């Protein structure tokens, strides 16, 4: 059984990319090449919200993720959310749903609404949902970025 770790972070920077890279560093996943997948949790995986990632392998490796990430300009907030539900009793697959925006309460609500819609499309029984929201602090003269990322297992060599 593998573990999917939910990590989150936020940062400010002089460019959108610098802010995003800083948010990834705050979450502990800045040294990996992220490969984004859709939103299905494999039946053999369990989800664990950890905040900051442990060592997931060598620098430069590929890391499979589902991510919500938001970036905002000067003095604007950015919020990212990731909601998830595993199968009832942990005996089957589950789902993630990510969303972004500026208002943390709205982002949380939309993430849970999207998850509920995804659950309705599947003939699976689900446990109660979980949700993680990360919101930036407003900082004058900088871009802000927030990320919430589900990191699947450990990293793998990219070449």
Fold blueprint:
Elements: E1 2-13, H1 16-27, E2 33-36, E3 40-41, E4 45-51, E5 62-72, E6 79-85, E7 94-101, H2 104-120, E8 130-135, E9 143-152
Parallel strand pairs: 1-4, 2-5
Antiparallel strand pairs: 1-9, 3-7, 5-9, 6-7, 6-8
Number of domains: 1
CATH superfamily: Pyruvoyl-Dependent Histidine Decarboxylase, subunit B
Shape: flat
Structural class: alpha+beta
Question: Do you know the CATH architecture?
Answer: 3-Layer(bba) Sandwich
Task: Count every beta strand, where a strand is a DSSP E run of 2 or more residues.
Answer: 9
Relative strand content = 35-45%
Rg (CA only): 15 Å
Low-confidence stretches: none
- Count of helical regions: 2
The first-level CATH class is given as Alpha Beta
Helix content: 10-25%
GO molecular function: arginine decarboxylase activity
Enzyme class: lyase
Pfam family, one: PvlArgDC
Cofactor: pyruvate
